[in-house]
Amino acid sequence: MLSYLVFIATIGGVYTLLALSLNLIWGSVGMVNLGLAGFFAVGAYASAILTTMGKGPIPLGLVLALGVGALAGLLATFSTKRLRDDYLAIVTLGFAEVVRLVAQNEIWLTRGADGISGIPGPFKSALGPDFNAFYLALTMAIVGVVYLLLRRIDASPYGRALRAIREDPQVAAVAGKNVMRFKTEAFALSAAIAGLAGALYGHFTSYIAPDLFQPLITVYIFLAVTAGGTGRPSGALLGAFLVVFFLESTRFVVEFVPGVTPLRASALREALIGVALLVVLRLRPQGLLPERIRPAPKGTS
């Protein structure tokens, strides 16, 4: 039971990084990223390929996941530079599907539908049965660093500029803000965090495959950010763990429904997730921890 709870808590930490990533770009800047699963997969595959086929060190794999995720985010924003913001959502959705199809068909690089197995974990052979507890501590430490970084950004003049762009980009541009630069930087950082989450996931489970990066992951993270409170890092953190708890609890709830086959049980779980999102939007549209707009400090612009 303890190992199961440690496993779930670690997955919760990975989902928290994804929620923080989405909260930065959607909650702070107002840009919709429907391809979060794609950036998640890019980071996972980048680190997995380096550390398995390339025999590279795990820390370098994590850094590579950050870099490749940021690069993918830059490509997504530059491709919609002259288009309305609506097209960014379409481009990111298409990007996620392209990543999944490439991972499924480019067998020479990703091993196709069989996936990449044997992904090394840090000190896994030395720690033995204590590896999961160590990895949970490592994941939470990384979550803490990313959370504090985003809190710092949120409270800084840079964060206020991002929120100004979210509210009205034209007014922000008139005030002298380079709207495109701010959006590009924020999206690159958001995608880098999602890539890091993918790398952590791969090194924890030691196996990744295209089917693990379905668009449903993006739905889960949108539910987490919506439930926790958009525009607030602490809301993303709370929402991510609530979603993981809800996902796991429904696994046990559907077992008590009579006459439900495993396939129907899976569909019923997804239906319950949809109902949960509707309930949150109906009862608490601002989230459990709604955003608090702090007044600008005196003497700053």
Task: Tell me what the structure shows.
The protein is built from 13 helices and 2 strands. It has helices at 2-28, 36-52, 58-79, 86-105, 107-110, 124-127, 131-155, 157-167, 169-174, 179-205, 216-228, 233-253, 262-283; strands at residues 116-117, 207-208. Helices cover 73% and strands 1% of the residues. With 301 residues, it is an all-alpha fold. It has a two-stranded antiparallel ribbon.
DSSP E strands, number: 2
Question: What is the count of helical runs?
Answer: 13
| Approximate shape | globular
Helix/strand order, N-terminal first: HHHHHEHHHHHEHHH
Biggest sheet: strand arrangement? 1-2
Span from first to last CA? 53 Å
Q: What is the chains' assembly state?
A: single chain
Topology summary:
Blueprint: H1 2-28, H2 36-52, H3 58-79, H4 86-105, H5 107-110, E1 116-117, H6 124-127, H7 131-155, H8 157-167, H9 169-174, H10 179-205, E2 207-208, H11 216-228, H12 233-253, H13 262-283
Helix pairs in contact: 1-7, 1-10, 1-11, 1-12, 2-3, 2-4, 2-10, 3-10, 7-8, 11-12, 11-13, 12-13
